[in-house]
Amino acid sequence: MSESATVDTPLKKLVGDKTAKALAAHLDLHTAGDLVYHFPRRYDERGEHTDIRSLDVGEQVTVLAQVQRTAVRPMRQRRGNLLEVTVGDGSGGLLTLTFFGNQAWRERELRPGRWGLFAGKVTEFRGKRQLNGPEYVLLGEGGEGEAAVSDEIEEFAGALIPVYPAAAAVPTWVIARCVRVVLDTFTPPEDPVPATVRASRNLVGLGTALREIHRPSSKEDLYRARHRLKWDEAFAVQLTLVQRKHRAADWPARPRPARSGGLLDAFDARLPYELTAGQRDVGVEIAADLAAPHPMHRLLQGEVGSGKTVVALRAMLQVVDAGGQAALLAPTEVLAAQHHRGMLDLLGPLGRAGELDSAEHATRVELVTGSLGAAARRRALAEVASGAAGIVLGTHALLYEGVDFNDLGLVVVDEQHRFGVEQRDALRAKAEQPPHVLVMTATPIPRTVAMTVYGDLEVSTLSQLPRGRSPIASHVVPAAEKPAFLDRAWRRVREEVADGHQAYVVCPRIGEGPASDEEPPPVDDNGRRPPLAVTEVAPLLAEGPLHGLRIGVLHGRLPADEKDAVMRSFAAGDLDVLVATTVVEVGVDVPNATVMIVLDADRFGVSQLHQLRGRVGRGAAAGLCLLVSEAAEGSPARERLDAVASTGDGFKLAELDLEQRREGDVLGATQSGRRSHLRLLSLLRDADLIRDARAEAIALVEDDPELTRHPALAASVTALVDEDRAEYLEKG
């Protein structure tokens, strides 16, 4: 075709209407640019074949394999024959291909020794993995039948065979053929990366990279192509973040400098313990941010129990000393109420302004939740609006119309990943000028994630645990293999209670009723029983292994006052065992609780399990976390649990969690609902590249903040990081 193709050329002009419709319908590919940026998911080689043993049932796969043997037998239930073809990958893995009907030509074509690519959905029959009626293309020789057309075979003549993300209706070799057609006439866009950056970072040109990633001449050329395209992705993200950080530095904010002899000094004087060195250092950073004339945007991360709340409270008191108000937004009413009680206890007379025993300079601490009665709500809102309440705690109810602040100076968001972008932004909009923002998380964030997702925030980390915190021992209880171990776990609960301690039992599901955010669906669809439920487990424990103990139930579907009453009873020691969902995952602080049993532990994520076990060992006595699972030894789920049990290092576990989840779209594709061209970047494997891209982005934005001298680069950033995602990054 003589006319050259650009990134905007519709595919129907290049590959025909029928194929273009299939690519659009099944893979959301509409233009030449869409297809060129639809990168292979892997490359097969004649000497390095797909490991068939690693295939999962239900997975849509393309495997490179060799025909081992064929067999034809009559079908029992209907007329005709069944052709069974056994293929292998050279590593001992075998896969059965089944074809129904009389297809003698297939038997002749699929003769032993032939190599081919076979695509279909993995099923299992009588313990053997198979593909029913797979699409295939044979390699190296011509053959009979539609699936072995010579021009398709030509795609796989090279040493490296690209395997694309495909669909049943559009197999990988069809995509490869379309890519070849497009590349034959494709004119790449102007290279957006400045020549000086390409030279200093040894990057190949964009056109070369786009051709070599689809049709690599060698492994070295493929590496260079992937490296260049990963750079584009990392560079676009980092430029977006650095630009937004640069703009935020120009926003006006009211400085909230520390005041000598005020609330903060009085609070420090009455603290019953000494701050850790980490708490002091982070406190100095935050105090300096609050005193600046532009808004603080800081992420405070720290292990469960590292003392983030005290750091946040000290920041809030500094703002109150400077005449402003501070709001803390918590993800659940249970946690908001717990923060309220905890801060009142820590502040004592300093938090009881207007009462007989209040201290000089005291303020008021108000709790605003959706379950407040009408009279209590009117009183609380009046305190907030007048400014008498210097510290305001609440859930998303703080965002409702009618909650007005007198002078909102600081927003503290606890466990930020539980809130939507719009909710966080709505709270910030309640201030006349942008308030200072402190985001807290107890989920350790790997360095590259912090750099890539939170790159417009300053990051502070609390790595020390306060004195008095006890170690937590964790063990996997294999309930299916060794039921006696589960019996021993329940006896251990009774022993802890007999010693005057308390226990948590955590289940993945609430029970009968509508679904809830607390209830993760089953991990797979392979017929496993439903996850264990709080409302079903609690009575079984009360009648069985924990008979005679005082058992309470806590989950998100309980009325707010009932939830609060249960938590108060547990905190006061009036309950021995709390059977709960993940509503106890964050913030719940009962130092007397020493043991946690997590049922169906394999249904939870790594970081979630690490958070949950942080609920025990919060006092002088050592903590114990038992992860109960029916997952088989050696299975991925069991290996994940073994990893959690083997270390208390949250950052190691966060990296494992990232790896297990295959990272996903770091820019929140599910939040924006848009397609993203970010395909290759790995937050785990590309840490050095991300760091280098950030350094180049900082230098470029300092010299040219709006990229006005680099229009192609600005357009590329917009294409890779669309406006929805840019806002997600800014607010997330």
UniProtKB/TrEMBL annotation:
Residue ranges of domain Helicase C-terminal in the record: 485-659
Q: What is the lineage of its organism?
A: Bacteria, Bacillati, Actinomycetota, Actinomycetes, Micromonosporales
Please give the biological process terms from Gene Ontology that the record holds. Answer: DNA repair
MF-aspect GO terms: ATP binding; DNA binding; DNA helicase activity; hydrolase activity
Q: Which residues cross the membrane?
A: none
> Which PROSITE patterns would you find in this protein's record?
HELICASE_ATP_BIND_1, HELICASE_CTER
- Please list the residue ranges annotated as the Helicase ATP-binding domain: 289-462
Region feature (Disordered): 510-529
Q: What is this protein called?
A: Probable DNA 3'-5' helicase RecG
Q: Could you tell me which species this protein originates from?
A: Micromonospora coriariae
Mind listing the UniProt keywords for this protein, alphabetically? ATP-binding, DNA damage, DNA repair, DNA-binding, Helicase, Hydrolase, Nucleotide-binding
